Amino acid sequence: MTSDDQRGAAPAAPPRFGANYTPSQGWFHHWLDFDIDAVRRDLDAVAALGLDHVRVFPIWPYFQPNRTLIRPRAVEQLVALADAAAERGLDVNVDGLQGHLSSFDFLPAWTQTWHRRNLFTDPDVVSGQCAYLRTLAAALADRPNFIGMTIGNEINQFAAGPHPDPDRITPEQADAWLTEVLAACEEGAPGRLHLHAEYDAAWYQDDQPFTPAQAARLGGVTAVHSWVFNGTAQRHGRDAAVTGQHAAYMIELSKAWALEPGRPVWLQEVGAPAPLIPAADAAAFTEATVAAALDCADVWGVTWWCSHDVSRSLADFPELEYSLGLLTNDGRVKPAGESLARLAKEWRDGRPAPAPRPTALVVDAGPDFSRRSVCAPGGAVFEAFARLVADGMRPAFVLAERVGDAAYLAARGIGEVVRPSEVLG
């Protein structure tokens, strides 16, 4: 196999560094008792780390409690938050239809129980979603620090199991829905970076209707959410090379489905979940994860989950959710925060372009994505990657149907393709 120890020398655009903003007071329920001074204190702490952006979460049912009521005061508060961020040199990405955050579902009553309608196919629901996304985007369209809209937080979890009550759809219906809601964002704020973001079932789960192709082809950037509690750390251990490389794995895997080389990828969520990553190891895990991610080409940025720990005064969260912050609930910088701050400072002035990845693993997930579980921890593609990175390799990925496309392989700098069976024996 080809050795890839060389490093490129040409400069690349500096990556963005940010945090998913979790308010220190009241978590995301802070919208119910909005306190701009508390928000400013939180954002001061984020800016002091040297980060350049935050991803913020206007909770959908709090902002749109009725299908035809988008609360003006709530929208004003969102704009106030964005302006406070701008005063501290922070850009803002706005997450619209969260649906799900930290084990809790957030859906408006007009989609549930007596008014139960499919989130993705009911025309009234989709019309309401589009109106809401368009309204938020338009409210921020003239703010220079507004990056753009993310459709929602891992809303694909509502479309299949293991959600206990999914709104099942086909991949074609998911495609139609994504196209419509992304268009609404563009109507509200033309020219901004609008995107959608799924959790890793889109890449790993055979029956998930949101697909890798949609993730890598729709929207202005491919979003990746990397969590090693998905079986990676359990199977391989916290010190394994593949655990620190999981985010890079997902970034490179996404490139296999992109239509054009060079599509940007945003590592939009990544964190150090205890106890799989103990507190004593969080800083080392942060450094390993970010270094590996930025050893991939075309990375738009890294946005850590999350800014602040969840307060212990709030009940019923999974234990790991209380300790994911870069900062404690009272604003003290944690070791992971120190690590990310140092990395942001080191990378701010540019970086050498990552070296090519001349060896590519073949991904055969089926034309209908029905075999994409080969990419999940335990699957042949994933385990072949784990074997190669343990040996110091830096593999890329190529779809089985593109192995014979010489021009495409050359454009990506791929000179050798290897099937997982050849690696695993």
Protein model, in words:
- The chain contains 15 helices and 15 strands.
- It folds into 2 domains: 13-352, TIM Barrel (Alpha-Beta Barrel), CATH 3.20.20; 359-424, no CATH class.
- It has helices spanning 36-48, 60-63, 72-87, 123-140, 171-188, 201-204, 212-217, 232-236, 241-244, 246-257, 282-293, 335-347, 380-390, 406-411, 420-424, and strands at 11-12, 16-20, 53-56, 91-95, 99-101, 104-106, 146-153, 195-197, 222-226, 265-270, 299-304, 351-352, 359-363, 396-399, 416-418.
- This is Glycosyl hydrolase.
- It comes from Streptomyces alboflavus.
Helix-strand layout with pairing:
Blueprint: E1 11-12, E2 16-20, H1 36-48, E3 53-56, H2 60-63, H3 72-87, E4 91-95, E5 99-101, E6 104-106, H4 123-140, E7 146-153, H5 171-188, E8 195-197, H6 201-204, H7 212-217, E9 222-226, H8 232-236, H9 241-244, H10 246-257, E10 265-270, H11 282-293, E11 299-304, H12 335-347, E12 351-352, E13 359-363, H13 380-390, E14 396-399, H14 406-411, E15 416-418, H15 420-424
Parallel strand pairs: 2-3, 2-11, 3-4, 4-7, 7-8, 9-10, 10-11, 13-14, 13-15
Antiparallel strand pairs: 1-12, 5-6
